Amino acid sequence: MLDFLTRKPLLRAGRFGQFARTKQLGAPIDFVWPCTNSGDGDGVAFIKVLEGGLPLWVGPPFPIPIDQTVPVNLHQTIDLSLGLHNTVPQLYEGFPPDGVRLIETDTLALTVVSNPILAPVGNPQIDGQDGPTVIILVIPIGQTRAVSISWMCGNTGGGSGLARIRLTGSGGGSGAAFVGTLVTIPGFSNET
Question: Rounded to two decimals, what is the model's pTM?
Fold first, then answer.
């Protein structure tokens, strides 16, 4: 009998080690599971992730040579709804999608969030003109003058954020301070 026909891999899983993760909507997540082959033939393994018994993601096959430990990896972009997802990562021997043998299974509580990511857009508008971030106004003593200041704020995150203008300064021995009203910046939008 030909010897190579009787050789078989003997794959076993190392520690998965992920029990709870919080990830931003659209961000990537890595499932990494070490797999050791202590058999006398080369093997193949892959990761499958389930939620509610249904497959969410299936990773590519990774070759596991004899007497080696290989980190089997599934790199996936989070495209799930916001909130808690009770996922079940599984390590399989063989080729996707079903493999020939379930090596190990674990659980991962995956919370998907969508935080605001706020940043200024352009320069502030001072009295309707595109101005630098520092401006000097000369107003005669004893007089007051209203100054219009606005600044566009962009939100590249999915959740709503809050922003406001705060003006601090000093000059001529007296300080000026102003705190504007809070403005809601919805996700993926710009507001002034």
Answer: 0.66
Contact (CB, 8 A) for 70 and 64: yes
- Give the CA distances from residue 46 to residues 5, 29, 36, 53, in Å, rounded to whole numbers and listed in that order: 23, 16, 13, 17
Concatenated DSSP letters of 84-104: EEEEEEEEEESSTTT-SEEEE
Cα–Cα distance, 62 to 43 (Å, whole number): 8
Distance CA 34, CA 20 (A): 18
Question: pLDDT (tens digit, 9 = 90+) per residue, 96-139?
Answer: 999 999 999 999 999 999 888 889 998 888 877 777 655 666 67
Tokens (6 digits) for 186: 């919805």
Note the pLDDT tens digit of each residue in 166-179: 877 665 555 567 78
> Which stretches of 94-192 are assigned E, i.e. beta strand?
101-105, 108-113, 118-126, 129-130, 149-155, 161-163, 166-171, 174-179, 183-185, 189-191
Q: What domains lie within the chain, and their CATH numbers?
A: 3-113 (2.60.40.2550), 118-191 (no CATH)
User: What percent helix, strand, coil does the chain show, rounded to 5?
Assistant: 0, 55, 45
Strands 28-37 and 69-77, bridge-based pairing: antiparallel
**CB crowding 81-92: b at 16 or more within 10 Å, else e:** eeeebebbbbbb
> How many residues are given for the chain?
192
